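Re: [ENG-882] Designed sequences occasionally contain unexpected residues at chain ends

Forwarding the minimal case from QA. Structure tokens:
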């Protein structure tokens, strides 16, 4: 990526075409991995079917299958030889949604699935937590049928329409933004299984409706301030997994290189009280920025740590961190400062009040962090560009 392109990619309002290019590059890498794995493991019938279907899809269809968070999980499970029913089901559903009419095919899936809410193709399956064993999927022109065994309850079956229109036990998937921010509470494979003091709640219908309303408010604010970043989120923040702290009164959020396109966001406080939409928009934008850097790192290293690596004081963590964590934090909080400075210029007085306070808090911590790494020698050229873009952003007037 040339210096000019890198500068545009790091800009606060996003560079959707450049982000998409990096995301498609990652999709091609996934395709190479599963194609090679299919040759090494010809007995893997699900993998063989997907590898046979991918070349027959449109370019957009291939990216829709392999570029999604489900595609990442599918590639990981098959490359490691740990075939997973959840990601198999999701990717087969995505292939079915994108493929041209063809022969009917039935495939047996390995493993089991505890089903509460599960995205498959253009549908979300709704269940009460049944453990599904002996899963089988039949792909026809207009429908996708899933059968399984449930202990003590006999045969389990769902028939899904290719177009995603509601069927018995399933509803149509409905992202909150334009192809992004799809709630994945209850989706197997996207739980918060880190020992971090937070849990991933399964929302009841009232909570889901209330959260959807708040996220729509957050999305509207994001689009008003950074429409390019909102477009990028199809690649960087596709799925939103709600979080709730078990103790304390924090508003957690995080993302992981291992689950690209999934953002874990604090949506409720410990007592179940919903988080305000201004916190939601900050958390979602925050995690998008981390995922944007993860995309950049997949092509260009940001840091060259010394041996042993140095430690730097982080005013956000109030602890020492390595250079990688500092680069991410500086980039993210510089953009949040920019975001709230722009929000402060809006006509909504309540939002402006929040924005002035948040931008001030972030700016003070940023100045301290930038001083801390001023003499570092652990930045790669791309990392230097990230820090330079962050510094330049702090000098921009609020309306820019």
């Amino acid at each position: 990526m040339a210096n000019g392109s890198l500068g545009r990619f790091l800009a606060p309002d996003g560079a959707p075409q450049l982000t998409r290019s990096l995301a498609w590059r990652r999709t091609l890498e996934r395709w190479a991995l599963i194609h090679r794995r299919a040759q090494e493991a010809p007995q893997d019938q699900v993998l063989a079917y997907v590898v046979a279907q991918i070349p027959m899809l449109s370019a957009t269809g291939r990216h829709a299958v392999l570029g999604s968070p489900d595609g990442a999980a599918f590639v990981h499970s098959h490359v490691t030889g740990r075939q997973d029913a959840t990601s198999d089901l999701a990717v087969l559903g995505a292939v079915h949604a994108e493929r041209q009419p063809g022969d009917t095919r039935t495939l047996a899936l390995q493993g089991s699935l505890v089903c509460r809410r599960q995205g498959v193709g253009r549908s979300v399956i709704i269940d009460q937590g049944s453990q599904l064993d002996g899963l089988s999927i039949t792909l026809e022109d207009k429908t996708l049928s899933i059968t399984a065994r449930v202990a003590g309850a006999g045969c389990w079956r769902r028939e899904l329409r290719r177009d995603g229109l509601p069927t018995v036990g399933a509803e149509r998937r409905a992202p909150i933004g334009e192809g992004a921010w799809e709630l994945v509470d209850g989706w197997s494979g996207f739980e918060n299984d880190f020992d971090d003091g937070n849990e991933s709640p399964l929302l009841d219908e009232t909570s889901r409706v209330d959260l959807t309303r708040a996220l729509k408010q957050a999305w509207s604010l994001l689009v008003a301030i950074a429409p390019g970043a909102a477009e990028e989120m199809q690649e960087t923040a596709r799925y939103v997994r709600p979080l709730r702290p078990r103790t304390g009164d924090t508003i957690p959020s995080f993302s992981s290189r291992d689950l690209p396109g999934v953002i874990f966001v604090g949506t409720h406080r410990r007592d179940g009280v919903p988080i305000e939409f201004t916190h939601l928009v900050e958390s979602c934008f925050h995690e998008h920025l981390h995922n944007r850097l993860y995309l950049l790192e997949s092509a260009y290293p940001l840091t060259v740590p010394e041996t042993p690596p140095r430690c730097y004081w982080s005013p956000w963590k109030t602890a020492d961190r390595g250079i990688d964590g500092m680069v991410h934090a500086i980039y993210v909080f510089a953009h949040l400062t920019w975001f709230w400075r722009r929000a402060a210029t809006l006509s909504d007085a309540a939002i402006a009040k929040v924005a002035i306070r948040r931008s001030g808090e972030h700016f003070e911590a940023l100045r301290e962090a930038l001083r801390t790494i001023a003499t570092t020698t652990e930045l790669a050229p791309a990392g230097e560009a990230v820090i330079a873009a962050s510094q330049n952003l702090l000098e921009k007037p609020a309306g820019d």
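QA comment: On inspection the terminal residues look reasonable. The mean pLDDT is 94. Proposing we downgrade this to a documentation issue.
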